[in-house]
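Co-fold these.
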Amino acid sequence: MIQSLNDSMKKLFPILGVVTAILLSYALYMALVWAPTEKTMGNVQRIFYYHVPSAWTAFILFFVNFGASIVYLIKRKPAADIVALVSAEVGVVFCSVVLVTGPIWARPVWGIWWTWDMRLTSTLVLWLIYVSYLFLRRFSSSGETPTLAAALAVLGALCVPFVYFSIWFFRTQHPQPVMGGGGSIDPRMLHVLLINWLAFSCFAFLVCWSRYRLEKLQRDVDQAHALESLMDPRGSIR
Amino acid sequence: MSGNGYLFAAYAVTWVIHITYLGTIVRRYKRLQGEIEALKKPGPRS
Amino acid sequence: MTAPTGVTRVTLLKDLRLEWRSKDAINSTLFFSLLVVFVFAFSFDPTAEESRQIAGGLFWVAFLFAAVVALNQTWAREIRNQVLDAYRVSPALANSLFIAKTLGNFIFVSVLEALMTPLFIVFYRLRSLGPVWQLLLVAVLGTWALVVNGTFFAAMSLRTRSREIMLPLLLFPISIPAIIAMVQSTTSILNGEGARFWIVLLVTYDLLFTTVCLLLFETVLNAE
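Predicted complex below.
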């Protein structure tokens, strides 16, 4: 039964790939053509349709990392460890997109490359936390990596509310330009935003799935190597 | 750069980042496939 | 009382005694923190008015680097003598070890602060417009925040490659809210403004992270 589940999942992947490609193209059209032009910022505002969904996707992925890490700490399932790794990596990728598109948006609008805007600054701190998580995974000795990484993920996730509060208060004391404007959003713009978010979420899911399969395969191969060297017929014990 | 230039840059950079990451996945996958082929072959190994 | 506090006390006293006898870590770290203060003093030479705006930030950054050097030494002795394996095998609570290490580090790092502060006051011609007891409170809370996380991450980094760079790499991002709070509250107090929000944030941060580090320490110690 597991085999047939595996097979049907393998068939699902290309179908989802096509669906995602269509969604992304449609979302791009909506963002560039259908969405109304913003009054003050002009076409540059359309960066918003890539910047914000990437941020939301990154936050969701980091939340998944938190959940998977807790599951690992309690149940020690290797699958949970792989989910944690994958969600952190892909989360960092999306986070990087946010951190690059933000300044590209800020520059023509505010004349400065960086602003201690709440979303941008919080995203930067999250990026730092999860990059340090990836470094720990790379540098720790392989036996203890899953446990240490899970512990770090828990601490990192618990830090997030503090990041928000401290930056929020910092900004009220030192007012900064706010990106994306405050207040209500044109319903047509919201519609385009949500479409792009849906498209990028599907894309993120596919990327995570690919990375998961890669990691699972890598671990299986590593295990095969280890077994092989144990059973080396020439008798040398490595 | 005009407003449109920044817009194009932002969208382009987004896809460059994503495609680069996907590229690393594909590259590692190909390397793994090579290792699997090597593991499957019977006979003496160095 | 019962075994846990006994183990804590014994470990703490042992560490303090060893540090005092060898004076290795104290001397080198002390000199390093003095160097950091001097370098900052040469780099930023503000007027007395300006200095009240930036001294908070400068002090905590200087202190952060000195604290990392001190924290890196935390487990060095234990690794050398395979003490940690003995702890893992013994029935002593892992948490007792953690509390002892954290308290020892806190004392050590506070001594560094106490020595760096007069230099800062002199070089930056500082005079606090707000109450000094508030500055002390911020110093205690902020130091504890750095030390509790630092001790935990030092334990995590034990068997990693590039152990010494791992500690600041892990510590700095997670400490950012605490660092913002420390710097902003110090600056506010120096300028005679209130810092209640930041102090509440620091207290909450300290309570939460101390609890979580205690909960996770045994897992981390036995991670293999």
